[in-house]
Amino acid sequence: MAKKGRKVKVVxxxxxxxxxxxxxxxxxxxxxxxxxxxxxxxxxxxIYVDSVRDFDDLCAQVEKEGRCKDLFMFRLLAGIFDYPSKxxxxxxAINPGMNNLSLLNDLRRGHQKAxxxxxxxxxxxxxxxxxxxxxxxLSTEDLLSLLNDSAYCSSLGFxxxxxxxIFIPNTYEVxxxxxxxxxxxxMLKEYNRFWTEERKAxxxxxxxxxxxxxxxxxxxxxxxxxxxxxxxxxxxxLNRLRRGMLLQADPTVKFAVGDFSLQRVLYKHLExxxxxxTYKYAxxxxxxxxxxxxxxxxxxxxxxxxxxxxxxxxxxxxGKHNFARTLAEHSRNALRYQQALNRRNIR
Length: 347
Hints:
This protein is mainly alpha-helical. It has 15 helices and six strands. The chain has helices spanning 2-34, 55-64, 71-80, 100-109, 125-135, 140-147, 150-155, 180-194, 197-205, 210-223, 230-243, 250-257, 267-270, 294-301, 327-343; strands spanning 45-49, 90-94, 115-118, 171-174, 310-313, 321-324. α5 packs across α6 and α11 (230-243) crosses α14.
């Protein structure tokens, strides 16, 4: 009996030891799988999940950009959570020292981080859509389809030619997987926020609507790269508009022709039949030549008051202009510029 009792105690101790060992082992694995730091990037990095990338693509990002120490443990926990079948699109942050549980909780719940988008030197809607395609999950085609939908643009109070006015160049925070429609809604809010009562009042004092201010600003921006000339040129075109004169703005002809690289606008270009040809049609063109910047818009709103009616590029090709009050004075400026073009053999 004594021997049997000792055997029972030994067996009991062995079973307890095994149980404790298994518990420790499972505890170690559990800690490693759930809470142990598993990502060691040198700083916060971002991984992307779109409608095309699958779980293997995500794991490749996690391993490379996130510097995952134990991909097996990440995959194991993702499988337990059944994450691979429930992936949500977005841009997600991996911080140094992050564990699997924290990252997978973000991924499973769609807790993504916003991204900054910018669009500055953009002329056409196609250029804008391409720029945003590179910065967001949306596609060029889907965004353009929306911006070229006349019924949709009309519902927002714009035309397909003026809808670009809502995209005022700046830096904005949005979610990477934002849809084209939500992006347009966001930009419309920014547009309405930008056009304060004070700015609207200034526009009205110039006899313009906010959209017309942006159209004129886009012409001014195309005329010169010298910011100091912006308000002077804006004042000149406002003078012409008030007198009922044709704007005769070369950038509008280049837009109509579809060639912004033209160094010399010829008579054949002036004959093109387009509502953007301000040598043929009075008033402002029907849309923007490029996105109007805040500097360009404010230059129109605060245009210099003067009596200039004419302008011509300086013959030194500095990018600046000679301004004139009379046609005779302008003709002399134009002749000097034409002669300079001839000397450089620019046709």
